[in-house]
């Protein structure tokens, strides 16, 4: 007999989803004998392995696994490795894995970009302005040349950076000058994208690097190759090909699924399949095929970061976040779920078997036993997309009982760096000046980045949204990416109307501009947009000459993925204070944790912290922001002064 899921309102502190729509589906699925992550967690021990969780379990050779206890005399590995060394190796390997996920994404984007420039894909160069800007960074001549020729040369130069062995990645030159000098001094400017991952794997091999500081040095250089390399490359090239996001209204949550349409859900991280599906889904022949089986048409919906990609650019709604992926299928309304890479649960295959849903893997990098594999090839992108759509249409008549919760929320998304710049000053006067001025005068206390995954280990969504609500209530403008953005969307925090929840200063700014107090900036790879936004704040002036001086902080309240560790490390190296929720992978070593939580600030001006309570997490970020304001001499709020003509003339004279 299936175990009953107790509603979260009745069971304080349990794991699950705070979204009532998801809870209702999970409860019904359990009654029907469908096993999701909830049952899998019940069948596991209540707590994860403390050695593994704290980073002091070493299995890098056949002598082990060696499980070490920090602070206990002679608690070392058979080879003599200390808890600090083991924890640093494990931390570095998490950075390498997380960075590699973004690097492979970036490489695939660069290959798609080059093929598009050569006319080998159905995609196109949509943002010529950004094409010219990035081309200038890479010293590609633009004057008098066709956009395709510019793109080919640019694509070739970018692809070369993945295998580059010496020198520096071009994107790092976008950082503030002072930050670049600091990186040079510390020696962490990445020499090539792939090289830094290979070096971590070598250093962490048994008997190689055995100094925790030196291991973290290479972890930092590798993380930098992600944030200021592959992720930034992916974001910029995707904008050039598919369009730089602009604010648009759309919807999130399970209610975006349709009872009278063929529902195709796209899950994963790379935008090529979602873009191709969006192109073909409204073709007359496809719509006609859907109508032949009794449907009104095709309804596309996203999950996880694939969803964020097409939400930002096309307004296609998101059905769910990472934790909701099985719930989406359990509605019984999904004809096909297409998945590519990253954050895809293997349990999807078993859940899909309980319904009429066909689970289809599309990437050669990621196959799932029990799923159909149909490889997506760029040169046949639209043909493959049509085949996938027709397969989904063929499933429509096999539907059983459909349970689509009447829950969806409208959101405003599409806040790229360029959008923020335009929003604050228009086409000809676009500038971060209004943002800087409002931080200086105190109406906006500072900027908080709340990013990353949602987690099965906490009441998913509520932890992140609690942090966000606390920040905006204290006049902190919040930037969100990834599944945190979806959680905020469900809570109504991505609408201009959410300004009612903000403090008086932030509320005034939001109502004046017409923006939400929480800005959706894209998928997890788009955390690079936050780096550029911080850089623009520095360049605009008045808030220091380096990112570490800006009143800003970041957090990942429900982090799950190794990508989060890589993101956190490149943010720390960029000068950010970064707080993670619930647990931290070096907790088993006090020496290493003290280094990451304290000493590393002396090297980079940024550091790590961890906090389980979401309200306290927000307050930690606020205290850091206030400390930065005090250092800049702007802690006291400046009252608005209405200048008369004499005062204006005096200002001009100066």
Overview of the structural elements:
The protein is an alpha/beta fold. It folds into three domains: 66-242, Substrate Binding Domain Of Dnak, Chain:A, Domain 2 (Up-down Bundle), CATH 1.20.1270.30; 254-398, Rossmann fold (3-Layer(aba) Sandwich), CATH 3.40.50.2030; 417-632, Rossmann fold (3-Layer(aba) Sandwich). It is built from 26 helices and 18 strands. The strands form five sheets. A six-stranded parallel β-sheet has the order 7-6-5-8-9-10. Helix 24 links the parallel strand 17 (577-581) and strand 18 (607-611). Helix 10 (272-280) crosses helix 15. The longest helix has 35 residues, at 83-117. The protein is globular and about 65 Å long. It starts with 15 loop residues before the first strand and ends with a helix.
């Amino acid at each position: 007999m299936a175990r009953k899921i107790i509603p979260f309102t009745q069971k304080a502190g349990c794991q699950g989803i705070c979204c009532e729509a998801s809870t209702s589906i999970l409860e019904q699925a359990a009654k029907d004998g469908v096993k999701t992550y909830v049952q899998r967690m019940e069948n596991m021990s209540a707590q994860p392995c403390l050695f593994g969780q704290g980073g002091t379990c070493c299995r890098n050779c056949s002598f082990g696994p060696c499980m070490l206890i920090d602070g206990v005399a002679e608690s070392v590995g058979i080879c003599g490795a200390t808890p600090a060394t083991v924890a640093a190796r494990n931390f570095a390997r998490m950075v390498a894995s997380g960075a590699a996920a973004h690097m492979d994404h970036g490489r695939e984007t660069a290959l798609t970009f080059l093929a598009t420039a050569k006319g080998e894909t159905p995609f196109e160069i949509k943002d010529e302005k950004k094409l010219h800007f990035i081309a200038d960074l890479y010293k590609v001549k633009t004057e008098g040349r066709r956009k395709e020729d510019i793109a080919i040369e640019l694509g070739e130069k970018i692809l070369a950076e993945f295998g580059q062995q010496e020198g520096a990645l071009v994107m790092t030159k976008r950082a503030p000058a002072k930050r670049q000098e600091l990186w040079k001094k510390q020696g962490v400017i990445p020499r090539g994208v792939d090289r830094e991952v290979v070096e971590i794997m070598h250093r962490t091999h048994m008997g190689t690097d055995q100094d925790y500081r030196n291991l973290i040095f290479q972890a930092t250089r590798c993380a930098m190759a992600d944030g200021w390399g592959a992720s930034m490359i992916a974001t910029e090239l995707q904008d050039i090909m598919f369009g730089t996001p602009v604010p648009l209204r759309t919807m999130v949550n399970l209610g975006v699924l349709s009872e009278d349409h063929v529902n195709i859900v796209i899950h994963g991280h790379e935008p090529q399949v979602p873009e191709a599906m969006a192109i073909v889904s409204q073709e007359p022949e496809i719509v006609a095929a859907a109508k032949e089986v009794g449907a009104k048409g095709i309804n596309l919906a996203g999950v996880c970061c694939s969803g964020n990609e097409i939400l930002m650019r096309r307004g296609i709604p998101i059905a769910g976040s990472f934790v909701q992926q099985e719930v989406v299928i359990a509605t019984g309304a999904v004809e096909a779920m297409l998945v590519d890479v990253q954050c895809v649960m293997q349990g999807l295959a078993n859940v899909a078997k309980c319904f009429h849903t066909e689970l289809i893997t599309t990437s050669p990098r990621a196959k799932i036993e029990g799923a159909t594999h149909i490889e997506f090839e760029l040169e046949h992108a639209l043909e493959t997309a049509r085949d996938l759509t027709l397969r989904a249409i063929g499933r429509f008549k096999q539907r059983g009982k459909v349970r689509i919760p009447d829950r969806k929320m409208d959101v405003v998304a599409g806040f790229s760096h360029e959008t923020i710049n335009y929003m604050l000053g228009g086409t000809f006067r676009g500038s971060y000046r209004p943002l800087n001025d409002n931080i200086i005068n105190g109406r906006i206390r500072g900027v908080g980045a709340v990013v990353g995954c949602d987690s099965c280990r906490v009441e998913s969504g509520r932890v992140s949204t609690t942090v966000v609500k606390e920040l905006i209530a204290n006049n902190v403008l919040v930037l969100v990416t990834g599944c945190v953005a979806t959680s905020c969307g469900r809570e109504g925090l991505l609408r201009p109307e959410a300004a009612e929840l903000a403090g008086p200063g932030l509320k005034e700014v939001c109502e004046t501009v017409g923006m939400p107090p929480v800005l959706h900036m894209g998928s997890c790879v788009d955390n690079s947009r936050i780096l550029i936004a911080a850089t623009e704040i520095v360049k605009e002036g008045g808030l220091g000459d380096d990112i570490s001086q800006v009143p800003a902080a970041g957090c990942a309240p429900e982090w799950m993925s190794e990508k989060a560790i890589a993101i956190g490390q490149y943010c720390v190296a960029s000068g950010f204070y970064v707080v993670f929720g619930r647990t931290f992978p070096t907790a088993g070593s006090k020496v290493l944790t003290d280094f990451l939580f304290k000493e590393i600030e002396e090297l980079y001006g940024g550091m790590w912290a961890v906090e389980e309570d979401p309200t306290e997490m927000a307050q930690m970020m606020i205290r850091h922001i206030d400390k930065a304001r005090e250092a800049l001499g702007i802690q006291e709020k400046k009252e608005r002064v209405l200048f008369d003509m004499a005062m204006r003339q005096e200002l001009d004279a100066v």
